[in-house]
Amino acid sequence: MGNLCSLLAPEPVKKKPAKRSSNAPSSHSNFSNRWNRMRSSRKDPNFDDALIHEQALAAAILFKHHQQNGSLPFDRSSSLRYPNAGSKRNSLPRSSSSRARSLTDPLLHPHQLVHQDTKLDDLETNHFVLVHGGGFGAWCWYKTIALLEESGFKVTAIDLTGSGVHSFDTNNITCLSQYVKPLTDFLEKITEGEKVILVGHDFGGACMSYAMELFPLKISKAVFVAAAMLTSGQSTLDIFSQQEGSNDLMRQAQIFLYVNGNDRPPTSIDLDKSLLRDLLFNQSPAKDVALASVSMRSIPFAPVLEKLSLSDLKYGSVRRFYIETPEDNAIPIALQENMINASPPEKVFRLKGADHSPFFSKPQALHKLLAEISKIG
Predict the structure, then answer these.
(1) How confident is the model at residue 123 (pLDDT cuts 50, 70, 90)?
(2) I need a labelling partner for 350 at 20 to 30 A (CA). Which of 30, 103, 257, 300 fits?
């Protein structure tokens, strides 16, 4: 997302939404062979790097397969799990790039995280629900899904309306409730007494906040990852307008779509693919950037303008945590700090070296922090 203040007087650009690529491999055997290679290479010391590369390719194949076969729900069969009876399900991947701190405590080193030995069976919930940011989809969490499930957590990744493999036209989204409906439908179906941990990225933070107001008793914790964390009466546009004049890259990347005519407000926003790496993925692997370039969709405009009504009784009752991304070119660290200071969460963590998309640039460090947050009593 980033600075959207220029939307109030945009340069008219009449453009039809681009169709996503639908070229998919014709042979299912190619995917099966890749699966077998990944399973057989499990004991290879270089497996981690190879796995990440294979996952990116496999995720792209799955995404395009969904496109060819119409709208399909994103389920955990698409998350590329690699079960291994000999793996230590409760162990956390090593990473030297995560830093955790509270608003008052000094920075902590990874080995100082205090809940590493807590067992999953002792948690209030071990179910993560991942909410993507504007233009992204459930596909962007593929590394996080794999790492969390490998550690024994349950994971659900949501495609919001008009995102990922959801077939709805983004330009026809007229309000935030419509955009967030796949998330609220999911939470509504959760059995009474069960809870989940919500994780929201980018614009997904506002979507998550909307859901927290509706279903506070079904949400154990909310984790904002480089995300819009609003106060009551604010819109996402209000938040990002705070960086007016400081984010030329975002303004250059924005392409406004006017499906209802140039004399009407924009219906959605595209991002210039040539600027995606610098804006969103400046620390991320090239293969993940390639995956994003063929998978991202337009960002609906109306929900960005909508002001949230958040109460202390409902939204305020959910425990909030924030994960900062200091190398972020879309939501700069100064803006993240502004949101944190305006509405302080319970604890703040920082991912050193993370760009706007830490699920790509720092997947293991992000996983370690999510696991740590799940164990905070």
Answers:
(1) confident
(2) 300
Residue 328: active-site member: yes
* CB neighbour class for 249 (10 Å; exposed up to 12, middle 13-18, buried from 19): middle
Give me the catalytic one of 127, 166, 201, 356: 356
Whether 97 is in a domain gets the answer no
Q: Is the dihedral of CA 205, 183, 294, 16 positive or negative?
A: negative
Beta-carbon contacts of 374 under 8 Å, excluding residues fewer than 6 positions away, are 123, 125, 126, 128, 153, 197, 221
Query: Which CATH number fits the domain that encloses residue 209?
Result: 3.40.50.1820
Inside any domain, residue 260: yes
Of 66, 132, 202, 367, the catalytic one is 202
Structural domain including 219 reads 124-374
Q: Pick the catalytic residue: 270, 328, 355, 367?
A: 328
Calculate what percentage of the chain has a pLDDT beyond 70. 67
pLDDT at 88 exceeding the cut of 50? no
The answer to whether position 27 is within a domain reads no
**Is 202 annotated in the active site?**
yes
**Strand pairing partners for 156?**
129
Taking all residues of the chain, what is their mean pLDDT, rounded to a whole number? Answer: 78
| Residue 270 CA from chain centroid, whole number | 18
Number of structural domains, the chain?
1
Q: Which of 299, 300, 251 is nearest to 278 (CA)?
A: 251
pLDDT in tens, 18-38: 444 334 344 344 434 443 444
| Of residues 315 and 251, more confidently modeled | 315
Q: pLDDT tens digits, residue range 28-80?
A: 444 344 434 444 444 444 445 555 555 555 555 454 444 444 444 444 433 33
